[in-house]
Amino acid sequence: MITYTQQTDVRRGFTLVEMLVALTIIGLLTTVSVVQFQSGRQDDALRLATMRMSDALRTSQSAAQSGSIEQYANAQGYGVYVFQTAASKSCVDGSTTINEGIVLFADTDSNKAYTPNTDTVIRCQSLIVDGAPIVLEKIEELKAADDSIITVTTATAFFQRPTSFVLIDAATEMKKLTLTLKNTRNNHTKQVVLDRISGRIDFDY
After folding, report:
1. What is the pLDDT of residues 79-137, one digit of tens each?
2. Rounded to an integer, what distance in angstroms lies between the CA atom of residue 99 and that of residue 110?
3. Would you call 2 exposed, middle or buried from its count of C-beta atoms within 10 A (0-12, 13-18, 19+)?
């Protein structure tokens, strides 16, 4: 006697609970990816602002050594003036007034410091990059005599022609200038450091 066994093809779909769990996991992964992407953009903006600060110092230093900015041939040297909002200073970039940032200038009045409306402004630059809230969190100067640190709201790094001899706030009293930039959206910071004695310019990348 021949017996036939019938096999039933059972195809099971996803339950509602399984679908909800899968959608929840996808949502979490998407959220994490977006947050990481936004954080990366904020860090990139801070890095670019730090590089701009360093570039302004290097441009002044190079100009003092080579006299590469020919239209300011009569300048005593070149400098970078940095200022915080708390200093109540400003500079104008086109039609925009900047209340915190950098002024790259040619010292046309030969006082080794930035004199508004007298010295020639080569570049006036904000710290804000692509809308990211970058601020000059701290300006610190290290004294040569006792290695004490003072905090100020403005500072001038000056490079004298033709040797690129460095002065901080028109004096040799300070041996190091440290500029701390901060992205207030994620509170990350980076620094630019000028060593007056060696002329070395370092920054956090």
Report:
1. 999 999 988 888 888 788 899 999 999 998 999 999 988 898 999 999 888 888 999 99
2. 25
3. exposed
